[in-house]
Amino acid sequence: MKDYVVFVFCFSFILVGYSQIEYPIHEDSKVREGVPKGEVLGPFIHGSIVFPETVRQYYIFAPNQYKKENPAALMIPFNGLNMADKKWKLPTVLDNLIHINEVPVTIGVFIEVGVQESQIDDTYDCPIRSVEYDSRSPKTASMVIDEILPKIKAKYAISNDPKDHLIAGNSSGGKAAYSIAWQRPDVFRHVFTGVGPYTSLRDGHEFLTLIRKTEHKPLCVYLQDGSKDLNNFSGNWFIANQYMFSSLEWAGYQVNHTWGDDTHGYNGRLPYNNQQYGRIIFFNTTENTLNTLDLDGNMNKLTTFNDDLKGLALPHNNEVCMCNTSKNQVEKIYPKRDVIAKNITCDNLLLTKKGIYFLSKLNNTYGFYQFKNKTISTFNTIENPSGISLSDEQSF
């Protein structure tokens, strides 16, 4: 088998406000006629030993060309099927590249981040993501190598050569991928890390000097980031990735990179220099009015209300939602008024694709309303809750 594994990550996005910079979908990410299609199996559930009382889903990609008598290469990307398939289009990429012999026959294992066993089904929350992905703890490597990988090898013949193994991830998943390869180069020699937090988010920044001070490891690394990546309390992520590349290059690693103008991820969620999206939306609690403030300082009143409304949230369709404390319900209030969920006492809220997180100062509680089953779960009791937010990468 070849002593290297090359994977092409192909995705597309448009950044609003940058002269419509386009990153077209690569041809390797498009379905081609006459190419044998592999199969995505799962989800399978894994309850971890090193992360007790947690479970995670994983999927297996089995290429059409796989034969048990010929051990396959291995690719493990973090963040599950949604990242691997919908965003990176890995099943299609692997189908195409295996077909033209650009990469060997490769088994893919798409691992989702763990969640607590007690967590309600179908929430958007991933409470242990930062512990599992951002820490340089050997627990994550042990979970992948000692717990999940034996399950894969029980079903498929996998090459024992670490040069045939690639581990990958985006954002915190990218740092987890690098951390595992750093700790266990006897298992993984190839790493792809996109928009990784090599900042002081937990201890990611320590890699920047560890690479220079530690004996060289036999790793092949590919970095990807964009100039408009996050710049937050932990540091500037784009600068940190450039520093990461510099450290690897200085230390003599086989390393390559792609820098772009995109934001954190693959689709340019954050717009810049665009009047249409550069507005502040706020609620005037004295006058009970919903207002906007544009980049030129112009304030406009959108509508007025008589109800006792608190909190403010924007779901994915950009409709404005608030807590109606006089009726104990969550409502869309603009551009059209409608009830989203009843029997919720809240002062503040946050909407996700799967439900509503809400806070109540009156009851000193926070909870979750699930859209799918229309059920309400109270997570905990806290004193005088006042605000709630998603992490920068929208994952917990």
What does this structure look like?
It is built from 7 helices and 24 strands. By secondary structure, the chain is α+β, with helices and mostly antiparallel strands. α6 (207-213) packs parallel to α7. The chain starts with 12 loop residues before the first strand and ends in a 15-residue tail after the last strand.
Key attributes of the depicted protein:
disordered N terminus; 32% strand; 9-stranded mixed β-sheet; single chain; 4-stranded antiparallel β-sheet; 396 residues
Quick structural gist:
The chain is of the alpha+beta class. It is 19% helix and 32% strand.
What's the layout of helices and strands?
Blueprint lengths: L12 E3 L5 E3 L15 E9 L6 E9 L10 E5 L2 H8 L2 H10 L6 E6 L3 E2 L12 H6 L3 H18 L9 E6 L1 H12 L6 E5 L12 H7 L6 E7 L4 E2 L2 E2 H14 L3 E7 L19 E5 L4 E5 L5 E6 L4 E5 L6 E5 L4 E6 L3 E5 L5 E4 L3 E6 L4 E6 L4 E7 L15
Parallel strand pairs: 5-6, 5-8, 8-9, 9-10, 10-13
Antiparallel strand pairs: 1-2, 3-4, 4-6, 4-7, 11-12, 14-15, 15-16, 17-18, 18-19, 19-20, 21-22, 22-23, 23-24
Helix pairs in contact: 6-7
